[in-house]
Design goal:
seven-stranded antiparallel β-sheet, 52% strand, nine-stranded antiparallel β-sheet, 5% helix, binds cobalt (II) ion
Length: 285
């Protein structure tokens, strides 16, 4: 067993996106701060409707997948093909933009807390132009396991706990083989998870803090993405205030990434094509 250690910490910074939604962005705040195949990680967390009410009016995507995961609050998703989805607290949406989608993501509330995440995960060249697809995942479809000192939810991939339990998340069978866990540990509790050696992996504590590599490990404060070294096992211990975190891992794609706003392709020419298609109304046709 080779334990993974922290190789880089990417603190989240406040940014504004959509029609003025206040977010914290860690991965993806600049083009060098990605972790193949992960392009962006945003956290939105506010009790103040002014921070989120404007939402994300219609906008395009091509060439990758967006994953939204809600802890509190409600979002409504709608696209140019008439697909409509209601994203509830505890639920997720896995959207494959593929060759193109034009959609809106709007809060379904005018007051109260909104807390969630959106990350972007890239597609390999041979899948960038496949038809758009969605998976709306209801909270009850996401397995939750009790472990010593906490709980774990599995959105994608397989959880294998130290005490021999396992659970498969609703998202399976993608070429990047993503693992997406939401782990909540009490003060001082430990957690370990096997992760395919060679897959990229990072942690994002959204409450409390962690030590990575056990009690003698490296500290990872909340709202900072902790990128992990190679290895086949991740081991963490929660800090004094506990540790609630996302664990994300996936198979790297290893292809050139050319991003222009909401389009992520392999070459400049493909970006120009995406812009032309969007202009002509054929992006998502
Ligand atoms: Co979008």
């Amino acid at each position: 067993m080779t334990h993974r250690s922290l190789t880089r910490i990417i603190p989240s910074i406040p940014v504004s996106d959509g029609a003025g939604v206040k977010l914290r962005r860690s991965l993806g705040q600049s083009q060098g701060l990605r972790l193949d195949p992960f392009l962006i990680l945003d956290e939105f967390a506010s009790d103040n409707p002014d921070d989120y009410i404007a939402g994300f009016p219609p906008h395009p995507h091509r060439g990758f997948e967006t994953v939204t995961y809600m802890l509190a609050g409600d979002f409504e998703h709608e696209d140019h093909l008439g697909h409509k989805g209601h994203l509830r607290a505890g639920g997720a949406q896995w959207m494959t933009a593929g060759r193109g989608i034009i959609h809106s993501e709007m809060p379904l509330q005018e007051a109260g807390r909104l807390h969630g995440f959106q990350f972007w995960i890239n597609l390999p060249a041979k899948e960038k132009m496949k038809p758009a697809a969605y998976r709306d995942i209801q909270p009850e479809e996401i397995p939750q396991l009790a472990i010593s000192g906490g709980t774990v939810k599995v959105v994608a991939g397989r959880l294998e706990t130290a005490d021999g339990q396992h659970a498969d998340g609703p998202i399976q069978g993608l070429s990047t083989a993503p693992l997406f866990l939401d782990v909540r540990l009490e003060s001082g509790a430990r957690f370990s998870q096997a992760v395919e050696n060679g897959h990229s992996a990072f942690l994002y504590p959204y409450a409390g803090s962690l030590r990575v590599g056990g009690s003698e490990g490296q500290p990872l404060p909340n709202r900072q993405a902790g990128v992990l070294s190679a290895g086949d096992c991740i081991e963490v211990q929660a800090g004094e205030d506990g540790g609630h975190f996302l664990l994300l891992a996936a198979r790297p794609i290893g292809e050139p990434v050319v991003q222009y706003g909401p389009f992520v392709m392999n070459t400049r020419e493909e970006i120009e094509q995406a812009l032309a298609d969007y202009r002509d109304g054929t992006l998502a046709a």
